[in-house]
Amino acid sequence: MADGYIKIYRQVRQHWTYKRSEYFHAWFEMLACAKYTPEPETRLIEGQLVTINYGEFVFGRTSWSKRLNIPETVLRGLIQKLVRDGMIELVGRYNKCTVYRIQNYGKFNQRTDQQTNQQQTLDNQGIEGYSDQQINQRLANRQPAGNHTQESRRKSRRIKQFINDSFREIKNFRQRYDDETLQLIDDYLDILRTTRVSNRISDSVICKVYEQMSKYPVIVVKYACNTIINNPALHSKKENYFFGIMRNTQADEAAEKLRKYEAEQAAGPVKPNPQYMRLKELVNRGSTGI
User: Fold this and answer.
1) Which CATH number is associated with domain 5-106?
2) What contacts 24+ positions apart, CB below 8 Å, involve 67-74?
3) Every domain range in the chain assigned CATH 1.10.10
4) Do 237 and 230 form a contact (C-beta atoms < 8 A)?
5) 92-128: per-residue pLDDT in tens?
6) Alpha-carbon distance 139 to 142, whole Å?
């Protein structure tokens, strides 16, 4: 990348792309070639105008095979696996190339230290995207003064509106719960973050969790959060497991089990779960839940 860097975590060694050098080489090339600024860009490729947006890259099996020295059959198989695994998605096909989008590209794309710190503030609130200052600075740096295109301005407004809408939606969901329940939810979300390689979850995932919780009585939500938090064996489970607990638990059953748990706590001092505390320290960003 000409600006910033690509963030790769050590856990990548456990990923299936790392197990085969050709796969990892090509995957890294996709990350490096993806559009890393928010404004769209139109390129002339083999006589065709192709518009590239944030997180998208242009793929040509023949040209990539020659450049990376990887057989076309291997690249074809890799693309199919990446699509099936939800790591990339097809945007558009052209005569000589195909455009793909890298899912959750924001967690790989890093800017300067100051911009990264600003982004971290949003990430700590469960919001992955661009702040107003980042967007405006990007546009100012990339375009001559007084020559901002309408498309670039519309793009920046869409990104900012998406962030604002998501933040408001999460805040509205949280109004349903008291402080005690919110603390349980925040603790569960901290655990859920550790199920991702980046130790972060996007605002869309958080909205989905709150949306699912809104379908069930508050007592069921408390029981489901409590079940995950106090069972280290469940800390690696993703949100669908949490949804299943709520779906299969009646309100009276949840209330009875919570009463038993609270009685056990009152009977004697309960030591903090060491594995849970380690995961909390790993997240190391507080429990805002938004």
Assistant:
1) 1.10.10
2) 68/22, 68/25, 68/26, 68/29, 70/22, 70/25, 70/26, 74/22, 74/23, 74/26
3) 5-106
4) no
5) 888 778 999 999 888 887 654 444 444 444 444 443 4
6) 5
